[in-house]
Design goal:
Radius of gyration: 25 Å
Structural class: alpha+beta
Number of domains: 2
Distance between the termini: 55 Å
CATH superfamily of the largest domain: CheC-like
């Protein structure tokens, strides 16, 4: 009497389907074999050698840093899209925009664009969270208090991002003082010394209480190999 029940066509088909789905999902290759002694199919899987998309890796760190810093500053939930957009250019845009350069082991430009609603949500919630009476708050997004507050928040955001990058990769950079400004029209920006340098552009999307704002990154094209 046979010790092992023969594999049915269904069993074989299901095995091949599972292997195919795995390869399609994560890549790599599969070496399939059959043991007549044990009546058993097996697969030896090899994973692809991953080449890190370091631009998107940095973008995700900026998402994490922004969400963490602004949540702690305002006591509000900061949500962000998991979709990272590759864009053709970066701009300062209405209603409040800010920009800051960073350089060192990696180099780039960070632009932050706030809608009027997002600017006021961040400003008001931070001030209230700090205990400032509502009667003392500025009422319009163009006020100096609002713009200065956003500039300081951005300084904290990029500081946190730099800290996380150094923790993960052992690489450091420093940044200029962020400059925030109320805008009525878009202004295209680029880093002057990037004229002869390959670079990548990304846009990251956030919300606070439904009010949208975006980060735009211009980063020297690079790849981290760890």
């Amino acid at each position: 009497m046979d010790r092992y029940k023969p594999l049915s066509p269904h069993d074989v088909g299901e095995f091949y389907q599972q292997i195919t789905e795995h390869i399609l999902k994560v890549g790599g290759t599969a070496e399939l074999s059959y043991s007549a002694v044990h009546n058993q199919l097996s697969a030896k899987l090899t994973q692809p050698q991953l080449e890190g998309n370091s631009i998107d890796d940095l973008a995700r760190i900026f998402c994490q840093a922004t969400s963490e810093v602004l949540s702690m500053a305002t006591g509000q939930e900061i949500t962000f899209s998991k979709t990272i957009q590759k864009v053709a250019s970066v701009h300062l845009k209405p209603d409040v925009g800010s920009f800051v350069e960073f350089t060192g082991d990696y180099t780039g430009l960070l632009i932050t664009n706030f809608s009027a609603d997002a600017a006021m949500e961040l400003y008001r919630n931070q001030m209230l969270y700090m205990g400032l009476p509502e009667s003392e708050l500025s009422a319009h997004y163009t006020s100096e208090d609002v713009v200065d507050t956003l500039g300081e928040l951005i300084n904290q955001m990029i500081g946190k991002a730099r800290q996380l990058i150094e923790q993960k990769y052992g690489l450091s950079a420093y940044n200029s003082q962020p400059k925030a400004i109320a805008l009525t029209e878009a202004v295209k920006l680029t880093i002057a010394n990037f004229q002869d340098t390959e670079y990548e552009l990304r846009r990251l999307s956030f919300k606070i209480n439904g009010a949208p704002f975006q980060l735009e990154l211009q980063l020297e094209k690079l790849e981290f190999r760890v």
